[in-house]
Amino acid sequence: MPPSLRAPRGTRDLLPDEQAAFARLERIARDLAARYGYHEMETPLFEQAAVFERGIGAATDVVEKELFRVTPSRGEEREAWALRPEATAGICRAYVEHGMQTWPQPVKVTVTGPMFRYDRPQAGRYRQFWQWDIEAIGDPGPAVDAEVVELAARFYRDAGLADVELILNSIGDPACRPAYLADLVAHYRANEARLPELERRRLETNPLRLLDSKDPAMAEVNAGAPRITDRLCPACAEHFAAVRAHLDAMGVAYHLEPGLVRGLDYYTRTAFEFYRRGAEGQQQALGGGGRYDGLIQLLGGKPTPGIGFALGLDRVVLALASAGATRPTAAAPVAVVVGADPGDTQGRLRIATELRGAGLPVRADLAVRKLGRQLEAAVREGAQFAVILGDELVAGEVQLRDLDGGSQKAVPLADLPALLRRKVRG
Ligand code: AMP
Question: Are residues 238 and 381 in the same domain?
């Protein structure tokens, strides 16, 4: 293969040790999801582009700039597809398609997997990245909002990240947001001369986005902007107060941030994000979520409330590394089957096959080489034991060497599975 072939920009290979860090996070996520009553499901990695255009909003960065469009090069189907940039829209499309409104509500589901955004790659920003997503569809809240937020906060704790801050806001609903947006637009129009070009354009299409602009020139204009939390209608204000009261009751700490609007159109009321303390505003949210009471209807279903989150696993892996956490490594076998007769690969493979059949992770040394070299390789690999085949094999015995401690003893082959099973590292 010519050396110029490489993984596409913004993607990377997760080599076994890095994959072990991801697998650990996925295990924590799966365990939490099950404990909190979320059921695993999958959605396709690509959907009709309309699922995202409608469900996320055509005037969002995710759709306008970052959608990874897929066009088949031939065939009958000329549909416009796109790789999924997030999981919520696809899950809600599935909710409508499969009539999940007839299931007991809320429907609580979870998806873990790769997402795709055609963004400019940089540290912590990839074109293919991994999210853990959970959604509770069919419950208007506010208690479920707090339950979802607490679950996300627990994930970071369980993952071993202690310095994660929760930012919370309410962005109102169709009853109160239009009047607020009118005020917001009036504020920006009055300051139009101070707006950078990009923000001026956004003012026409998605004025809420100006509030979480990362452009330093916007800080002053935004400081004087009207706050959504001062304009919530009574129902949204009551909902927001109740979410906070439920979080307080569980002892979940949060920081109120009226400028937090999230990039996606479909959010209503509760919005939240997680940052490493001191890293706010660096476009490096570890995760976020919110309520989306209008989304199911946008996708053709009956009006149905929902809330969920998406946590970026890549960024958690990076944060753990920069916090100096010990990295998990790819699992080593409990034992390597080696032999005194360099050529007897058949014998080694046969014993290894028996042990694997008994459920044990073992490797057979299949190289034709001296016992010493086979043992060296087993030590380097981090195996706990070497099963050494020698003359005792005719009597149904092998030598079992403890590669950590160095002790060695003869063991009947029949006892080997039970003996090794007790030694498999948890
Ligand atoms: P969002 O739906 O944009 O709020 O994304 C949810 C989470 O996914 C973010 O908080 C990030 O942790 C992660 N994320 C989003 N986009 C990327 C990306 N391009 N690369 C890596 N992680 C991302």
Answer: no
The residue out of 269, 297, 322 marking a domain boundary is: 322
| Residue 220, in any domain of the structure | no
Pocket flag, ligand 1, residue 66 (CB < 6 Å): no
Distance, CA of 424 to CA of 107 (rounded, Å): 38
pLDDT at 265: 64
Question: What residue owns the CA closest to ligand 1's atom 15?
Answer: 312
Distance 283 CA to ligand 1 centre (A): 9
Order of strands across the sheet that contains 408-412: 362-364, 335-339, 385-389, 397-402, 408-412
Shared-domain flag, residues 161 and 58? yes
Does the CB atom of residue 314 touch ligand 1 within 6 A? Answer: yes
**At 157, is the secondary structure helix, strand, or coil?**
helix
Q: Which of 3-17, 27-41, 254-268 has the lowest mean pLDDT?
A: 254-268
At which of 301, 322, 343 does a domain end? Answer: 322
Q: Residues 268, 136: one domain?
A: yes
Determine the residue of 131, 134, 309, 317 to mutate for testing ligand 1's pocket, defined as the one with the most ligand atoms within 8 A of the Cβ atom: 131
Q: How far is the CA of 317 from the centre of ligand 1 (A)?
A: 13
Ligand 1 atom closest to the CA of 124, numbered from 1 = 21
Using one digit for the tens of pLDDT, what is the confidence trace for 357-399?
999 999 999 999 999 999 999 999 999 999 999 999 999 999 9
* 306-319 pLDDT per residue, tens: 999 999 999 999 99
Same domain, yes or no: 299 and 354: no
Interacting residues of 369 by C-beta distance below 8 A, sequence separation 6+? 342
310 lines ligand 1 (CB under 6 A): yes
Tell me the residue range of the domain where 245 lies: 16-176+232-322
Are residues 165 and 270 located together in one domain of the fold?
yes
Note whether 112 and 261 are same-domain residues. Answer: yes
pLDDT digits (tens, 9 = 90+) for 49-106: 999 988 787 777 788 789 999 987 776 667 789 999 999 999 999 999 999 999 999 9
Same domain (yes/no): 252, 302: yes
Helix (H) or strand (E) holding 306: strand 306-312
The stretches of 36-118 forming alpha helices (DSSP H) are 49-56, 61-64, 88-97
125 lines ligand 1 (CB under 6 A): yes
